[in-house]
Amino acid sequence: MDSQRSIYLKTISIDEALEKVLEEITPASLPGRESVPSQQALGRVTAGPVRARYSSPTFHSAAMDGVAVRAESTFTAREDNPVILEKGRDYVEINTGNPIPDGMDSVIMVEKINQEYEHSISIEQPAYPWQNVRRIGEDIVATELLLPRNHEISAYDIGVLLSGGIWEVDVYQQVGIHVIPTGDEVLDFTSRPDPSPGQVIESNSQVLAAMAQSWGCRFSRTAPVPDEPQKLEKALQEALDSQAHIVVIGAGSSAGSKDFTRRIIQEKGRLLVHGLKAMPGKPTVLGISHNNKILVGAPGYPVSSVICFEQILKPLVYHLSGKTPEEPVTVEARLTRKIPSRLGMEEFLRVSVGRVGEQYVATPLPRGAGMMTTLTKAQGMTRIPADLEGMQQDRMIEVQLLRRSREVNQVLVTVGSHDNTVDFLANELALFNPPVRLASTHVGSMGGITAIRRGTAHMAGIHLFDPETGDYNFPFLDKYAPDLDYRLINLAVRHQGLMVLPGNPRNIRSLQDLPRDDVEFVNRQKGAGTRILLDHHLQQADISPEKVKGYSNEEYTHMGIAVNVLSRTADCGLGIKAAAQALGLDFVPLARERYDLLIPEDFIQDDKVVQVMNLLHSRDFKAGIESLGGYETTLTGREMKPGMGL
Ligand SMILES: Nc1nc2c(c(=O)[nH]1)N[C@H]1C(S)=C(S)[C@@H](COP(=O)(O)OP(=O)(O)OC[C@H]3O[C@@H](n4cnc5c(N)ncnc54)[C@H](O)[C@@H]3O)O[C@H]1N2
Ligand code: MOO
């Protein structure tokens, strides 16, 4: 094995890793002080107590529009004994905020003046001293403490500072983060590159830049550095000589032959941690430089880097800046399916979260550390503790919300078979105010029925053909969900067919071509309506599945099938026309089928479902579906009844 490879030291928990770094932090690692204009101090932390230079108000001022008077000249006023006051001598007209004239001590609101004459007024109520007057220093008294030290400055505080005559305020410097992305394959996004095979667009640094902004940090970045020790060394030295308090080296932290991060951290300082008991995020490296800066080797995979930023960098930044992070918002949610995990490793699982009836439900999203889109699709993140080997279906778990809870309550949880009209529906629902967020999980039609029966989804897209009756969906619901009170609403009638490469090079014309030796098929997963449809047609054509090469190779979505054909992993697969069109494939039509939405009666009045129904009845929506290609909308929005067939 290559001697350059850096095998992990010893993995430790996130808390232990943080402790190791915090132990090493000395005053030399902490941000210094600086003076900033008060109006630019939002989010900064005061480095000392701030005292007022001026009082506010600096004079006795009228709190209301009206007249300024001497209270004592009004004391005898009664309803049956009005007092007449003379302009100039007994009162002066005054507006809110004006100084009270010398000798006056009270303001009568204009509404309380009984009669107004040319040079006098009559009043029927006495005024008491300092009535409707804001006295000197009512809000702020010069020299008083405006803000204590170590106080995070809010928008309101800026108003207080300026009112008290504080033009500049002493604060701690912002924590500075510098990032050095590395990797021969990593392209600088600023040059708007076209990636070739083997190349990747640099994005992790900008995820951190955006996070750093929300943490109130200064941020800087080096353009991506190739995997050459000298170049990396030079970039790191420059970062160490800069104002940054934390230097992050992106990627190159695991065990590859070009992973130099650990070695270079050892050269420039002391290595404290190499390896977390956390997935994703395991290959995180932590150290402290000779000049007391925190060194972080962040994993290259985008999701792993996010975990490293959130779980390690964020607490360190808040520690250095003296600020308190906001408490994460969490909900208790029911896990919709069993999830395995590795004993001894804490796992961060992205989940789709929605409120179905009285409970939150959480559905795990794909776990790949390179799948950044799972973070944008997820409404939440849950942690599987290191001492568990996974979690059972229906377990109540704590989920940290990644979106605002109001947005989570707008999630329409949809399961079942995948269809492009569901994506189209999702896009249209997002146009409502507030937007309805359709979160769909593709588990096939049978999986959809199961989820609805278990109460973990608002609706399911299903298309199950029953060869015996010639009907759709009802025979399966009778059998698998006999007690369910539901409605079945048609979304569209769709065309299924064989997806083949453009020009159909294998000349696949019908199912009869599937048993050919030179034809490799790719199938949908068991329980998928498309697979049931295929089996039915194979049986009708008297073709045994064993004769079809690739029958047991499974994909979970129509697009998955299309990708297999496009990448020549298979020659053909059964799916919808829209998926073939999306990837520029040819399509050999085979059958029409009904794609319905299964909605429990309990949710038919749910606002989100009502919006779906409104859309299904709109002409624009139907036109939109038809423009996808391979769909008919004659039944769209209609309630289906047993025996209707197609
Ligand atoms: N033999 C082993 N191999 C790996 C292990 C292991 O334990 N033993 N751990 C795996 C784990 S877990 C992770 S996470 C990755 C992390 O590896 P590195 O930190 O060394 O990162 P690279 O291999 O250089 O890159 C991984 C991946 O990320 C892309 N990348 C890198 N930088 C960026 C960036 N700035 N923006 C976007 N994408 C980036 C890079 O191109 C790679 O695709 O190691 C496993 N291997
Ligand atoms: O632990 Mo790595 O950080 O999963 O992909």
TrEMBL record:
Which pathway does this polypeptide act in? Cofactor biosynthesis; molybdopterin biosynthesis
Cofactor(s) needed by this chain: Mg(2+)
SUPFAM superfamilies, per database record: MoeA C-terminal domain-like (SSF63867), MoeA N-terminal region -like (SSF63882), Molybdenum cofactor biosynthesis proteins (SSF53218), Periplasmic binding protein-like II (SSF53850)
**Which cellular components does GO assign to this protein?**
cytosol
One Pfam family from the UniProt entry?
Answer: MoCF_biosynth
Q: What's the Enzyme Commission number for this chain?
A: 2.10.1.1
Which domain of life, per UniProt? Answer: Bacteria
In this entry, which stretches build a coiled coil? Answer: none
Q: Which SMART domains match?
A: MoCF_biosynth
TM segment ranges: none
The processes (GO biological process) annotated in the record are:
Mo-molybdopterin cofactor biosynthetic process
- Annotated ranges, domain MoaB/Mog: 178-319
Catalytic reaction(s) noted: adenylyl-molybdopterin + molybdate = Mo-molybdopterin + AMP + H(+)
Q: State its role.
A: Catalyzes the insertion of molybdate into adenylated molybdopterin with the concomitant release of AMP.
Q: What is this protein called?
A: Molybdopterin molybdenumtransferase
Q: Which species is this UniProt entry from?
A: Desulfonatronospira thiodismutans ASO3-1
